[in-house]
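Hey all, sorry for the wall of text incoming. These are the two entities for the joint prediction.
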Amino acid sequence: MLYAVFCYNQEDVTNAWTKEQDEKVMHDLLAVQSKYAEAGRLGPVARLMPTTSATTLRHSHSETIVIDGPFAETKEQLLGFYVIDCASVDEALDFARDLSSANPAAGSYEIRPLAIYKPSELAS
Amino acid sequence: MTDTAWIDLALVSARPQAVGALLRYFRNLDTAEEAFQEACIRALKTWPKSGPPRDPAAWLIFVGRNSGIDKVRRQSRETALPPEEILSDLEDQEGALADQLDGSHYRDDILRLLFVCSNPALPATQQIALALRIVSGLSVKQIARAFLVSEAAMEQRITRAKSRVAAAGLAFETPDAADRADRLAAVATMIYLVFNEGYSAMNGPESVSADLCQEAIRLGRLLLQLFPAEPEIMGLTALMMIQHSRARARFDADSAVILLEDQDRGLWDRPLIDEALALIDKAMRYRQPGAYQIQAAIAALHARAERADETDWAQIDLLYQALERLQPSPVITLNRAVAVSKRKGPEAALAMIEPLADKLSGYFYFHGLSGHLLKQLGKVREARVAFDHAIALATNAAECAYIRMQLDKLDEAPGIELSERKI
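and here's what came out:
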């Protein structure tokens, strides 16, 4: 079974980290990751940019609206995610619009640039 | 990370929200600060034992408010003043916690706190000092060190700023949209002042002034969290990020300034640049150009060029023209002259900046750029005069060292100057 693991932390605190503190945390996390990477058990890894870089496309029955900032509702649940390569947030929004029109359910698509992306090291 | 390091970070990051809410309760900056201080002392005692609270800011507000009320009551007993005036709007203690978490309060609390420090009646240096003390919670000693003044002088500066703020009166009513926009603009200016103080005082990547730049970026991010749909705040934050991304490349081993075109671009902080580019991209969607956005866009063009000679000077020239239209200033024209010198040569640029001589005669960069352009034209004697003017106006050692280096180069064989003219 493949599992996705989502990381939640207080951003105000991580934003207050100095560069050195941040690098230390990333270094320690890498040590954890490499064990799983070497065993061929680590899929793609991503670090998201802060929520201030986020844009959200909200889709209800007939209309879609674009909101600056992260997805903030608690009544919807995270059901999946994509990683796509786009030249601009507008292109990413087009992709999200296509998804929303293909999906009959109302929902939201938070678009957040990636700060770090490492492709999968899963054994085939 | 150790427990105490975690607690320090939690206190720092909760500070603007907590002090902002306490200011709303007590309507007095000193009382709010003392109440927060008291809450921090209790946090340092309690948190290591009981574990950190889920919402550190709410905890600090609650505890700070209670200790502040105690203090106000004690004082009122001592001085026999009727407490009602002060306490009238503090009655509902039980429902307070929910109230503190109210999003709109939270937003206006922080904005008010930032705005208190951005009062246009305060000179820039006092705005910066007050913000670092009140919002960022830096000690007077730390701030004094960043400003290169004595602790006593800084203490005095902050006290003076506080009494001016008190005299001006604080606005506690919930701001309407227009007020909010005005406050936001004043706060943006203040944050950029903090950044520039750090940026211009830096003489190496390890210098204490770099902390001011980081702090300003943190405040920019904070403001963006509160006002996620403001393109100018996106622009301001992106601008500071790109400028700060060069911190490690800006100085040589002798702490002399290295100009943008001579910097080792491999030393630029790429993750910070990427975040800035994402913000600029978001801001562009609004099609509401503003001064910070344009400056950020100029900085982004430099950041995008992998080598100095790949810089899109034509686009930079256009952006500076847009900036000149938006806020005409000789300093902006001076900056545009750099782009013009790259596109059309030093002669055209020199012709552009000569009319600025009256207005900018006391400005370091004016003489620095004149010297450069004259040097490129092979006018060694005039270049020397310009550099001499510049060195007399330099405000820090890094600027001095840079100009001295230029003067030394002028002393070398004039043949070098001639060969440079071809470029």
